[in-house]
């Protein structure tokens, strides 16, 4: 015959006089006392059940009230509680819970480490789809780079190696004004590039070569795809004649001799300044004055003389002498001269001194 369980020893705080919280009564069954626990009363002695606290629920299997909390045991006190059978409760930490878990035990259970999830079949399929998409993107990238390389290679071949974009002399256009440039010489210089790709034609080198043709002052070159070139020539035109040994040197506005002829053309003024190094500045000043004149006045000039670069004198075809001075304030000097030649008191003068345009003099 099994002996009844011995009464549970009081906690230390109960011995100190502190009121102990109400605890539910243990199940009405006997349990084998733990080793070292004090012997219980004889079987014939009834065990007085302490006053039960208000019940909060019953165990679905034993009918005993469910625990709402645990009272910490005194250090070193042996346990006397019953040991639950397999399937009647679960262990949370060091507490034994019998029956349905309460709110406190549920909170403890929720803090337990989560279980490792196992990839489902759907997740594996998703990873397979992602790998397939990455392979597809790489494939498209490789195809795009390959197509780009093919296009670049084709364009490079067409520009530099193909005859489709090579220069054809039949598509050369040479134009320009003036009569002092041999256009056939310009065509001959450019025609040497026939068969060369337009992309390989060095415009700067070609321009320098064309400028070596006599009497070319400037030139511009443009590519005309797919196989042509356009050359625009600016010729040097003579603006004055200068006496030289053996004839007259025709000179342009930059003091460059364009040609030498026995006699000066009737439409060009004669500059009576020798072509020597000492008179270079004086010659430049005379050409600058001639360039600054209005077209109507320039056409009336028969000759130009200069003692220095600040003392340029013009002689018109009707014999009127104009003391111009330097090339500064040429526009104002031209306006003053035109006014004096139209005024009643001065239009018959033989000499007009406009070297100081604010104080003109007529004689």
Automatic annotation (TrEMBL):
Domain POTRA: 167-236
InterPro entries noted in UniProt: Cell_div_FtsQ/DivIB_C, FtsQ_DivIB, POTRA, POTRA_FtsQ_type
Matches recorded under Pfam families: FtsQ_DivIB_C (PF03799), POTRA_1 (PF08478)
Domain of life: Bacteria
Biological process per Gene Ontology, one example term: cell division
Record-level GO cellular component terms: plasma membrane
Main localization of the protein described in the UniProt heading: membrane
Subcellular localization: Membrane
Disordered: annotated span: 1-92
Transmembrane segments: 141-160
Sorted UniProt keywords: Cell cycle, Cell division, Cell membrane, Membrane, Transmembrane, Transmembrane helix
Protein known as: Cell division protein FtsQ
């Amino acid at each position: 015959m099994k002996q009844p369980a011995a009464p549970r020893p009081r906690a230390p705080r109960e011995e100190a006089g502190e009121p102990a919280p109400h605890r539910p009564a243990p199940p009405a069954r006997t349990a084998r006392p733990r080793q070292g626990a004090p012997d219980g009363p004889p079987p014939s002695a009834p065990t007085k059940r302490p006053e039960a606290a208000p019940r909060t629920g019953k165990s679905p299997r034993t009918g005993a009230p469910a625990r709402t909390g645990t009272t910490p045991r005194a250090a070193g006190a042996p346990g006397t509680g019953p040991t639950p059978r397999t399937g009647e409760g679960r262990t949370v930490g060091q507490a034994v819970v019998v029956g349905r878990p309460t709110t406190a035990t549920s909170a403890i259970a929720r803090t337990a480490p989560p279980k490792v999830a196992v990839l489902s079949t759907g997740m594996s399929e998703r990873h397979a789809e992602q790998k397939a998409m990455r392979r597809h993107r790489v494939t498209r990238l490789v195809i795009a780079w390959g197509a780009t390389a093919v296009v670049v290679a084709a364009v490079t071949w067409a520009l530099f190696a193909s005859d489709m974009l090579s220069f054809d002399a039949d598509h050369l256009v040479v134009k320009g004004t003036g009569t002092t440039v041999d256009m056939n010489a310009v065509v001959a210089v450019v025609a040497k590039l026939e068969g060369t790709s337009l992309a390989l034609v060095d415009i700067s080198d070609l321009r320098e070569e064309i400028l070596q043709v006599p009497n070319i002052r400037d030139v511009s070159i443009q590519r005309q795809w797919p196989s042509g070139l356009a050359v625009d020539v600016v010729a040097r035109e003579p603006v004055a004649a200068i006496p030289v040994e053996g004839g007259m040197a025709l000179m342009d506005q930059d003091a460059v001799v364009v040609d030498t002829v026995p006699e000066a053309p009737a439409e060009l003024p004669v500059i009576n300044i020798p072509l020597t190094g000492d008179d270079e500045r004086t010659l430049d000043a005379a050409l600058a004055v001639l360039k600054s004149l209005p077209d109507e006045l320039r056409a009336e000039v028969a000759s130009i003389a200069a003692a220095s670069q600040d003392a340029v004198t013009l002689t018109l075809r009707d014999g009127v002498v104009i003391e111009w001075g330097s090339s500064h304030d040429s526009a104002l000097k031209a306006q003053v001269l035109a006014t004096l030649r139209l005024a009643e008191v001065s239009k018959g003068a033989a000499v007009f001194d406009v070297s100081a345009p604010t104080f003109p003099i007529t004689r």
